[in-house]
C-alpha cells in the first residue's frame, strides 16, 4: 500500500507531537525528582566547617549556597561573597560543597542550598559553633592555713557554649553536692561557669590535691583541669616507742619520741616524774631518743616527752618498770588463790566432821544392859524375866556392853 505525500506528512507530524509530549512528560517527571540534600554541621570555634549539598537527579540545574543573612556564597563554581575563609571544595551537577575556615560564633546559623528548578527547591543546614571554655582558674587560696580554719576556693571558666560542666576532686575522689553558677557572657552567646568550695580544714588535708575539672563537648574528652595543693599547719602529735617490752636490771633501753606536726617540732623535751632527768650520765638524749644504760630499780617512774612547734605543744607519757632478772620471767608460778581455796575447803570439811562426831557421841553417852543381863533369855514368861533381872543386878557388871 502506498501512501500519498500529504498523508505521509500528516503521519510524521503526528509522530513528532507524540515524541515531544513524551519528552515534556519525562522532563517534568525528572524535575519533580530533583531535591537538594544537606546535613547539619557542628564545629568548634576556630575550626573548619564543611557544607555539602547533593542532588541525586539533576538535568544541568544550578546549585547555590547562601549564609544565614541570605547572602550568596557560591553559585555553582562561582564565588559570590568576598570572604577568604570560604572556599570551594567540589562543584558538579550533583554536588556543591564549600568550606568555612576559622569559624567564629557569629558564623552560627541556618545555611540554605538552592536548586534552581521551577519552582526553586531548597534545603536547610544548621551550623552550630561550640564555644571552647577557657582554662579554669582557682582563686581564694591562702597558704599556709591553720588547722580548724575555714577555706573558700572558687573555680571559674568563661567562653563555653553551651555552658560547661564543672566538678571538684580531692586526691582524685570527687567531692559531691557542690553547686555551680552559670552566667551569660556579654556577647550573649557564651557562658561563665563558677563553683565555690567551702570547708573546714584539718591535718589530714595537708598535702591534699584539690582539682577543678571542666568538661565540655568541644574538648574532645580531654578536660581542662586546675589544681591546688593544700598546706595545713597543725600542733604536734606525740607517741613514745620502747625498744624493750620487758626491761631488766643491768640492761639498756631506748625510748623514742615520735612527733609529727607542721612545722616539724624540733627538738623534743624529756622529763622524769615531772622533773629533769636525774642521772644525765646514764640517761642520754640524742635527738628524739632517750637511752638509759645499766637499768636499776631507781629508774622506775613516768617519763614524759613534749614536742613544740609555732602552732602549739603536745606531750605523752611512758611508765617504766625495771624487772628483777633473777625472777623466772615468763614462767607460771603457783596459783596462791587456788591453793588457799582448797585449804579452806579441807578445813571446813574437817570441822564439819568433828562437829557431827561430837553430837553423835553426846547422844549415846551411858551404860546399857543386854537381854541376857536382864535375865530375859531363860525366863518362861515376862514376870519371871523381870524377877530374874532384878535378881541378877549383882552380876550385871559382867553382862555390860558399851556403845561408843
Report on the architecture of this protein.
It is a single chain. The chain has 404 residues and is of the alpha+beta class. Helix content is 17%, strand content 40%. The protein is built from 4 helices and 28 strands. Strands 2-10-9-4-5-6 form a 6-stranded mixed beta sheet, with no helix packed on it. A 5-stranded mixed beta sheet has the order 12-20-21-24-23, with no helix packed on it. A 4-stranded antiparallel beta sheet has the order 1-3-8-7, with no helix packed on it. Strand 9 and strand 10 (121-130) form a beta hairpin. The longest helix is centred in the first third of the chain and has 28 residues, at 5-32. The chain is elongated, with a radius of gyration of 58 Å. Residues 1-31, 367-376 and 392-404 have low confidence and may be disordered.
Sheet with most strands: 6 strands, mixed
The number of helices is: 4
| Unreliable residue runs | 1-31, 367-376, 392-404
Looking at the chains present, what oligomeric state does this protein adopt?
A: single chain
Estimated share of beta-strand residues: 35-45%
- Distance N to C terminus: 180 Å
Give me the count of strands: 28
- Overall mean confidence score, pLDDT: 83
Overall shape: elongated
Helix content estimate: 10-25%
Q: How would you write the strand order of the largest sheet?
A: 2-10-9-4-5-6
Radius of gyration: 58 Å
- Structural class comes to alpha+beta
